[in-house]
Amino acid sequence: MNHPQKPDPRSLEAIINVEVDVWRVKDSPDLVGNTPTGHYKFTLDHDVVHVDAPGISTRINYRLTKDAIARGFSFTAAFTNDYKFQLRGPYLECSTPGIAEKDRYDTIWFLHSNTHASLISVSLQVRDSQVPDHTVAYDPQITNTPGD
Fold it and tell me: What's the burial of 4, exposed, middle or buried (CB within 10 Å: 0-12/13-18/19+)?
C-alpha cells in the first residue's frame, strides 16, 4: 500500500493580508498627513507585520482598499532594507476588476522566509493619479521570530 508523501513543512505557505488606505489631506480637512510632506494620510490594518511561522514561507500581501483605488491610488514599487535576505519580491499584481490598466497595481507582495530574527523596513511606493509623475512613499515595518 502506497502512502502519499507528507509535504515538507518548509514548502507550505502562510499568508498575511494588510489593507492599505490612502487619502489626500486636501480632500479631507479633518485629516492630518503622516508622510514627510504631510499631504497624504496612510492607514494600514497592521502597522507592524509580525511573521512567526517557523520554517514556513509567509506571503505578505499589501492591498489597497477599494476606496483608495477609487481615489486614484496604485502601487508602483517597494524597497526594503532586508540585510538578512529574507524577502523575495516585491511582486506587483492587479486583483481588482476594472483597474487592469497599464501600470495600475492594487497589490504588492513579498515572500518572507523567516530564517533570522530581524526588523525590516519596507517603503511602499504609491502613485497619485491626480498629480502627474508623482509618487508618495509610506514605510511600514516587518518583524519576525523564526522559532527554535
Answer: exposed
Nearest to 83 by CA among 121, 37, 47: 121
Tens of pLDDT along 78-134? Answer: 999 999 899 999 999 987 666 556 668 999 999 999 988 999 999 999 999 999 888
Where are the strands (E) in 1-148, listed by range? 13-24, 40-44, 48-51, 57-64, 73-80, 87-93, 107-112, 118-128, 135-138, 141-144
State pLDDT tens for residues 13-71: 899 999 999 999 998 888 899 998 899 999 999 989 999 988 788 999 999 999 999 99
Residue 92 CA to residue 77 CA, distance in Å, equals 7
Rounded distance between C-alpha atoms, residue 141 and residue 148, angstroms: 23
Whether the CB-CB separation of 75 and 105 falls below 8 Å is answered with yes
What are the distances in angstroms from CA 89 to CA 17, 23, 26, 79, 122? Answer: 15, 26, 33, 9, 11
Tell me which amino acid residue 70 is: A
